Amino acid sequence: MKRLLFALSALAATVAVAAAVVIYGGLYDISATDQHLAPTYRILDVAMRRSIARRAANIVVPPLDAPPMLDRGLALYDAHCVQCHGAPGVAPEPFALGLTPAPANLAHTARAWPPADIYWVVRNGIKMTGMPAWQLRLSDADLWAVVAFVEKLPELSPRDYDGLTGALGPARTEEMPVRNRPDPERGKTAMQQYACVTCHRIPGLVGPHAPVGPPLDGIGSRTYIAGVLRNEPDNMIRWLRSPQDVNAASAMPNLGVGEQDARDIAAYLATLD
Predict the structure, then answer these.
(1) CA-CA distance, 186 to 190, in Å (whole number)?
(2) CA of 190: how far to CAs of 194, 200, 246, 269, in Å?
(3) Is the dihedral of CA 259, 264, 269, 273 positive or negative?
(4) CA angle 153, 156, 162 (to 5 degrees)
(5) Is residue 49 a contact partner of residue 126, using CB atoms and an 8 Å limit?
(6) Measured between alpha carbons, how far is 196 from 209 in angstroms, rounded to an integer?
(7) Which of 63, 140, 160, 240 has the lowest tally of Cβ within 10 angstroms?
(8) Spatial separation of the C-alpha atoms in residues 74 and 82, rounded to whole Å
(9) Cα-based angle 238, 239, 242 (whole degrees, multiple of 5)
(10) Residue 130 Cα to chain centre, angstroms
(11) pLDDT, tens digit (0-9, with 9 covering 90-100), for 158-215
């Protein structure tokens, strides 16, 4: 037993040293033009599918064949999805063709995946693939509308899709409902989804932490926001939703933060004291 444990420890140490050499030596090619090794792709694909299936297991799928839902799903798909995934007779945009792994062909996804799994992915996104999470930008009804349309994709010819989209107007984004009580934990997620970590160091969030904006450690106990507004919840919400209206010289961009998202983010920031 001692010999076995020693052998396993030696093997683990060897693997750790080899991994360190590969990582710190820059030997692994992370370029998008270098495809994954076949075993790597297979392992990641299985891990992704099992992870999604586990988390989507208890999702209740509503009826998906109502014409208004399909029409709404078409408009949303054309506005937000076709750029990466394409459609019958429609190629993805050039930027999407440069992604690794390539965005999935959703006509096949609709055949192979249960609707609950598709909903989970549209809502939550997938790490390290370029697939975004839409839960902060689309209502739950709209998320299901997208799923409903994806389910119909295998039935559409290029002529069908062209005819359906030819009569489309702009897809309107519904305002997300506002809850009475802010949710700090959701606010933490929202800060990640609005890419706040690309400019700020934020306790509790992992990211590049580029020192473009000030660190947010202790912001809950600061007196002023942006040196202009008293640090109060309503003022923080105002700042998050329209920073240039507060300070026209600020580099803080208007990220289109919804009211509920701003309330939740303000609640999380208030905990950082």
Answers:
(1) 6
(2) 6, 14, 21, 11
(3) positive
(4) 110
(5) no
(6) 9
(7) 63
(8) 10
(9) 80
(10) 8
(11) 999 999 988 776 666 666 778 889 999 999 999 999 999 999 999 999 888 778 889 9
